[in-house]
Design goal:
This protein is mostly helical and 300 residues long. It is 67% helix and 9% strand. It contains eight helices and three strands. Strands 1-2-3 form a three-stranded mixed β-sheet. β1 and β2 (238-246) form a beta hairpin. The chain is elongated, with a radius of gyration of 26 Å.
């Protein structure tokens, strides 16, 4: 099992455990804040399971149908995950407003506090683990999962504060305000996931720093006269690079090939966690700027 798949199994198991505990206490206590956290854990569980299948499919090799592989499934999963989080946030906001209107009262605050403390500790440990795997694999799905559970850490802290304040003051409005605030925060956090996924689906270029490093590697090769049509994009854990390199027209194909191999190896060292797919086109002249008057250094 790959680290990405293992991470989704771990996060799914943790979410299932937290869901069971929070739902029981949330329903029994009547706390909107605890119930909000419970609903979020339910969604966490389903999202993590979905992420497992997304990663499993994205890791399949390229074939006749999907020539570039299925890496963009991860971006699609990120958009779906962000959408689900947004819907859950809206539902939680509805629950907070409903409690405020009906004047519902929270119960079993002591048990609720204990549950949320345990939940906070477990969630922090999970975020640290997911961040580690995300750095190792550069998986967009794991990054999204880590960000999602990071928001859970903040919401758990907010719920704890709410329960403590309600316990000491008896003001139920605090629970409503915190529950509503959590829902708004959840909706806001989902925006980044959706945006990132859409940008990958639209073939956004990789970070500017990496592009500049690739250009520097190309310029460092003395036998390369120029380059053009440099294109980059991410798809899951894969990073695609395409570029045209201009050589002297009298260079042998073997020598030009050695240079391109050297450039490819240097590019791959920029980030060893990425799965690089590099396609270099070799030009005997700069056809990017050529006009109808003729080709420089043409050989008949």
């Amino acid at each position: 099992m790959t680290p990405q798949k293992k991470a989704t199994v771990v996060s799914s198991s943790v979410a299932a455990l937290l869901t069971l505990i929070k739902l029981v206490v949330g329903i029994a206590s009547g706390s909107v804040a605890v119930l909000a956290s419970a609903i979020d854990s339910v969604l966490d569980m389903f999202v993590s399971v979905f992420n497992y299948f997304a990663i499993n499919n994205s890791e399949k090799p390229a074939d006749k149908t999907f020539n570039y592989g299925r890496g963009k499934i991860e971006a699609l999963a990120s958009v779906i995950e962000g959408t689900i989080i947004t819907v859950s946030g809206l539902f939680l906001l509805y629950q907070a407003i409903k409690k405020a209107i009906n004047g519902e009262v929270s119960h079993y605050l002591g048990i609720s506090l204990t549950v949320m403390i345990i939940s906070l500790i477990i969630t922090i440990a999970l975020v640290l683990y997911l961040n580690k795997i995300a750095k190792q694999t550069n998986s967009m799905v794991i990054k999204a999962d880590a960000l999602h559970y990071k928001t859970d850490v903040y919401t758990n802290i907010a719920v704890l504060v709410s329960l403590v304040l309600v316990n000491f003051t008896g003001i139920e409005l605090i629970d409503v305000i915190v529950g509503g605030g959590i829902s708004i925060f959840i909706i806001y956090s989902a925006y980044e996931l959706i945006q990132e996924g859409i940008l990958v689906l639209l073939d956004r270029a990789v970070d500017e720093e990496i592009v500049e490093s690739i250009v520097e590697i190309i310029k460092a090769e003395e036998k390369v006269n120029a380059h053009h049509l440099l294109k980059t994009r991410d798809a899951g854990s894969q990073t695609f690079v395409e570029v045209h390199l201009v050589f002297d027209c009298i260079i042998t194909l073997m020598d030009a090939h050695r240079v391109t191999d050297r450039i490819e190896e240097k590019i791959k060292t920029l980030d060893s966690n990425r799965n690089w797919v590099i396609n270099i086109h070799m030009d005997p002249y700069d056809d990017f700027e050529i006009n109808d008057e003729g080709k420089p250094c043409s050989i008949n």
